[in-house]
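Budget justification aside, the reviewers requested a transparent look at the raw inputs and outputs of the sequence design task funded under Objective 1. We therefore reproduce one unedited record. The lines immediately below are the structure tokens for a 172-residue chain.
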């Protein structure tokens, strides 16, 4: 179990992750047919209760003229057509390939902070610096799997892509 400094560092990472997820909503465009069906933006969080709690504070706020809906996803049912964004926590590493396969080609922005996520076919992966227990860990940047984004019919604005490490191939 970590000490107070490690807990504070993790708390800071969770806050930054929540801000990253929120800001991605501002810089991602969904296909017209997917966007017209809903007057809200749905964000699903799987396997990361801290992120869900932090983003939950933004539930029902307006973003891009739509109501933001934050949901914690616990079940193993179908995810097709359920969300605009699905964040898959690192604790679900063993389930990630199945989830990504189910969502492949769907207009759902998949995000995670698990190592190798973009190489699995995920779209956005947050990366870290200083993961040693005695140092404050910090989000470094994020990787974007442009091939997966484009095959889902999504587009990420260039302002955001300039800040990312772009991955153009997957191992699938």
């Amino acid at each position: 179990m970590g000490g107070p400094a490690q807990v504070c560092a993790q708390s800071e990472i969770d806050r930054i992750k929540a801000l990253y997820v929120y800001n991605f909503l501002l810089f991602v465009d969904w296909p017209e047919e997917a966007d017209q069906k809903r007057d809200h933006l749905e964000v699903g969080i799987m396997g990361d209760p801290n992120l869900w709690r932090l983003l939950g504070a933004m539930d029902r706020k307006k973003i891009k003229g739509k109501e933001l809906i934050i949901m914690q996803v616990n079940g193993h049912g179908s995810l097709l057509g359920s969300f605009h964004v699905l964040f898959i926590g690192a604790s679900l590493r063993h389930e990630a390939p199945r989830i990504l396969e189910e969502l492949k080609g769907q207009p759902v922005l998949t995000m995670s902070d698990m190592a190798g996520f973009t190489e699995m076919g995920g779209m956005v992966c947050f990366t870290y610096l200083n993961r040693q227990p005695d140092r404050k860990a910090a989000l470094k940047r994020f990787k974007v799997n442009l091939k997966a984004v484009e095959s889902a019919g999504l587009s990420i604005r260039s302002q955001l892509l300039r800040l990312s490490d772009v991955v153009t191939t997957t191992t699938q």
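The first helix runs from residue 4 to 27. Helices lie at 4-27, 32-36, 49-56, 96-103, 117-120, 146-151, 158-161. Computational costs for records of this kind are itemized in the attached budget.
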